[in-house]
Amino acid sequence: AKTMIKLIILDVDGILTDGKKYYDARGNAVLKTFCDKDWTAIKRFRALGIPVVFLSGDRNINEAVLANRNLPAHFNRLGGQTTPKEFYIESFKSMYGCTEEEMLYVGDDLFDIGIMRAVGHAYCTLDSPAAVKGVAHTLPVSGGDNVVMILFDILENMSLIPYVPFSEIMPKIIELDQTEKF
Fold it and tell me: Which is more confidently placed, 88 or 181?
């Protein structure tokens, strides 16, 4: 039997974004682009009762963007120290009441391989390095190209998440949308 997914863990840069950062003259990252349909897909997961949590090395920009959408974020690079992402699994198990097998992770870079090996469901983008593709299912899109939207459809088609008709879930999606600050 398939293990249903009970927690979605997402990297940010290269998943919700195309991985590009735009810098000012002082070398500060000042701009990234995100896909709106991914925000809706995240609300779809949450409306089904599947929490979505973010695990990123880049607190700059990402923290404010995720906070404005009331989304939980963890940053594994603080003050020059990087914590391997797989170290977060134990706390996610207790915070979200699920097992490793019920967790899904989406990433795109070498820093994601450890956690990909530790969770039950690992996915990467089409533009990920070969080493990442070797440990994860490759989605048919590159980073920043509606990755989460495509993931939702794939998981629903594979019956790894519950199917709820659009008309039934839309009121909950609207309710979640109204809690967000842009």
Answer: 88
Between CA 29 and CA 120 the distance in angstroms is 34
| Structure token digits, residue 22 | 């735009």
The phi and psi torsions of 157 (rounded to 5 degrees) equal: -65, -30
| Rounded Cα–Cα distance for residues 156 and 165 (Å) | 11
1: which 2 tokens? 């039997």
Which pTM value belongs to this model? Answer: 0.94
Helices (H), 19-163: 36-47, 62-68, 89-96, 113-118, 130-133, 147-157
Task: Label the pairing between strands 29-31 and 77-78.
Answer: unpaired
Q: How many residues would you count in the chain?
A: 182
Are the C-beta atoms of 29 and 21 separated by less than 8 Å? yes
Query: What pLDDT score does 38 carry?
Result: 97
